[in-house]
Amino acid sequence: MAGDPIRCDVLVIGAGAAGLMCALTAGQRGRIVQVIDHANKPGKKILMSGGGRCNFTNTGTTPANFLSANPHFCKSALARYAPSDFIDMVERHRIAYHEKELGQLFCDVSSKLIVRMLLDECAAAGAQVRTDCAVEGIERGADGFRVRTGQGRFHCASLVVATGGLSIPSMGASGFGYEVARQFGHEVLPTRAGLVPLTLSGKHQQRFADLSGVALPVAARCNGQDFRNFMLLTHRGISGPAILQVSSYWQPGDDLRLDLLPDRDAGDWLRTMKRERGASELRTVLAEAMPKRMAQRLCEHWLPDRPLRQLDERQLRDAAALLGDFPLVASGTEGYRTAEVTLGGVDTAAISSATMESRRVPGLHFIGEVLDVTGWLGGYNFQWAWASGHAAGQVA
User: Fold this and answer.
1) Low-confidence ranges of the chain (pLDDT < 50)
2) Where is the RsdA/BaiN/AoA(So)-like insert domain (predicted)?
3) Which of 138, 200, 274, 367 sits in a 20 to 30 Å window from 118, CA-based?
4) What's the half-sphere exposure (Cβ side, CA atoms, 13 Å) at 93?
């Protein structure tokens, strides 16, 4: 496209959570800001998140809620832009919200209100947002960066890469940010799907497939991490909050265990049930602590299918051990198609934790999911987007 280049102080590539936060923050400092995105509208992942209600932060956010090759990297940005800071903006825009559980805050009405708020803040700060604007090439010169797009050329002093990861390609996710990182000499750590349903195969898949839709509280354990919440059985495997959480710590071959009675000591409870209701079948008693179909399936394949009084102490102990430490062999994940986040990404070793700026290329910043920082389920990844976007926006 011919014509003079569009000149700006800051060009943000990606109009998602991190990119919009960076743009409005930089704009409020008086910087001339342009935001470009190849998608047809901004904030697509915001819009779909939380079932359309957007789990926009978590009041309990700490650095311990994030995975990264450098667990210290996220500390600075998170400390300087807290959940309360974002909540202040939400309240200023009179967006009604509620806490669902475990510090998770959701919009009462719609995630559209969060996108509208961010766009209104960008507009008030003079930051211009362009959609349907794909990047065709990036060069660095003595006076900054030259970016070719389908809507013309941009010249900027600071370039911010806020392009997200590989999760949910149907939303337009791509590895573009990783390509930019490599172009400018940055390492990209191996990526994989995170916060993603797990698939089962063989015996476990055959025995559980027809229980699709059954949900029960569990404590899921893997590699020293323990998450207590609901598990949902699916046609292909397992999902639900407990499984999505533990999936970020699981890789093929890793040991995955479930406590199927997380609210009780299985041994004590079974002995009490034997004393008080010895004539009852084990499956009948179990059905009072978990969905009936799950209780039946366990007794068909793994547990003694007979009255409690017929079980001796060793059998009770074995049953309790299985219920409290059920070994589930997952074969894989559902992949980026359904993953909420991407694990891995741009190596933080060459990025400033205070400014998100490249240590190799002055003026180049990486924020949000494109970096090797991944939060737990429950609003943590949005808080990282706000915090990292704010950190870059204060200096870009």
Assistant:
1) 1
2) 192-341
3) 138
4) 18
pLDDT (0 to 100) of residue 90: 98
Extents of the domains making up the chain: 6-193+342-393, 198-333
Q: Kindly report the pTM of this predicted structure.
A: 0.95
176, 178, 182, 184 alpha-carbon torsion, rounded to 10°: 70
The 10 Å Cβ neighbour count of residue 355 is 16
Answer whether 196's CB lies under 8 Å from 247's CB: yes
Whole-number pLDDT of residue 2:
58
Instruction: Please tell me the distance from the alpha carbon of residue 73 to that of residue 388, in angstroms, as a whole number.
Output: 11
Q: Say if 6-193+342-393 and 198-333 have the same CATH topology.
A: no
Give the class (CATH, top level) of 6-193+342-393. alpha beta
pLDDT score recorded for residue 58: 98
What would the 3-class secondary structure string for the chain be? CCCCCEEEEEEEECCCHHHHHHHHHHHHCCCCEEEECCCCCCCHHHHHHHHHCCEEEECCCCHHHEECCCCCCCHHHHHHCCHHHHHHHHHHCCCCEEECCCCEEEECCCCHHHHHHHHHHHHHCCCEEECCCCEEEEEEECCEEEEEECCEEEEEEEEEECCCCCCCHHHCCCCHHHHHHHHCCCCEEEEEEECCCEEECHHHHHHHHHHCCCEEEEEEEECCEEEEEEEEECCCEEECHHHHHHHCCCCCCCCCEEECCCCCCHHHHHHHHHHHCCCCEHHHHHCCCCCHHHHHHHHHHCCCCCEHHHCCHHHHHHHHHHHHCEECCEEEECCCCCCCEEEEEECHHHECCCCCEECCCCCEEECHHHECCEECCCCHHHHHHHHHHHHHHCCC
Q: Which of 76, 98, 34, 54 is nearest to 340 (CA)?
A: 54
Q: What's the token pair of residue 212?
A: 């699709």
Q: For the beta carbon of residue 344, count every other beta carbon within 10 angstroms.
A: 21
CA distance linking residue 366 with residue 357, whole number of Å: 7
pLDDT of amino acid 1: 47
* CATH fold label, 198-333: Elongation Factor Tu (Ef-tu); domain 3 (2.40.30)
